[in-house]
């Protein structure tokens, strides 16, 4: 589950909130956050994460079933990491780091080397672990992009539920105006979460986004979530539409969008890294949501992202249920991967 931690705003004490991973600190607060017991739900999440990453991690973990640490082990590990779409740069980095850890610890047991690899992966991914802060701006405007089929609209629905459950008021903007199914899907999520939605059939996506931000300000909403049309980064005219949405949102609120998130499908492996690079060039991404890690053997792409395009990962998903989207924790991920 998500925990919200409050901090004082510059003018009157409206309570901003942060949405941190369990293992990270919340934004600075003048008073301690109320104690919240997350052990049970987080334990349930970790079990799902381990099960979800089994396809990716099994090939890596089997490398350490031998009896000695030698060149053959490292060669097998290199192959396993590449097969998991960790990428050449991240694989080289992890192997060099692991060999140093083995030498420094004087480890002779291959099973112990697996633990050292988990440490190396956790350290590589640590810079990607960052809390999503809600409340420094009112509304906090979050623009969400992604290719068709990545799970973008579903992720927005799940995020909306988490925000609403913790007391944040949310307004949805259906800026995928030309695809009726997208508007209908977002409307269903709005209805399930009992939040308002700004929608317009066949209208200008930028205009809908502008109206939503303006409405969010007027109605005092905490968050405005803008769902944009799915597209490939090679569709240049559609990428320009995303830039236009961002520009027009800034006309409604000069400080917005406060977050620009990209939803990527873990099944796409190295292609996911290319998407991160392309969308970041177009929009200056602030965070990622990585979905469908339970259906892929290519979850190592997170390591490739960390090495080549370290955009923070706010959430990861390992299933279709509401609770199957959770905050990203680098050490949890590394340990679950090699469990």
Automatic annotation (TrEMBL):
Binding locations of GTP: 146-153, 227-231, 291-294
Domain (SRP54-type proteins GTP-binding): residue spans on this chain: 312-325
Keyword field: Cell membrane, Cytoplasm, GTP-binding, Hydrolase, Membrane, Nucleotide-binding, Receptor
UniProt EC number: 3.6.5.4
Gene Ontology BP terms: SRP-dependent cotranslational protein targeting to membrane
Subcellular location: Cell membrane; Cytoplasm
Region annotation Disordered: where it falls in the sequence: 1-40
Bilayer topology: Peripheral membrane protein
Reactions that this protein is recorded to catalyse: GTP + H2O = GDP + phosphate + H(+)
Source taxon at top rank: Bacteria
Biased composition annotated in UniProt, kind: Low complexity: 20-39
Pro residues bias (residue ranges): 10-19
InterPro entries xref list: AAA+_ATPase, P-loop_NTPase, Signal_recog_particl_SRP54_hlx, SR_rcpt_FtsY, SRP/SRP_N, SRP54_GTPase_dom, SRP54_N_sf
PANTHER family associated with the record: SIGNAL RECOGNITION PARTICLE RECEPTOR SUBUNIT ALPHA
Biological role: Involved in targeting and insertion of nascent membrane proteins into the cytoplasmic membrane. Acts as a receptor for the complex formed by the signal recognition particle (SRP) and the ribosome-nascent chain (RNC). Interaction with SRP-RNC leads to the transfer of the RNC complex to the Sec translocase for insertion into the membrane, the hydrolysis of GTP by both Ffh and FtsY, and the dissociation of the SRP-FtsY complex into the individual components.
Subunit structure: Part of the signal recognition particle protein translocation system, which is composed of SRP and FtsY. SRP is a ribonucleoprotein composed of Ffh and a 4.5S RNA molecule.
Family indicated by similarity: Belongs to the GTP-binding SRP family. FtsY subfamily.
Full protein name: Signal recognition particle receptor FtsY
Lineage: Bacteria, Pseudomonadati, Pseudomonadota, Betaproteobacteria, Burkholderiales
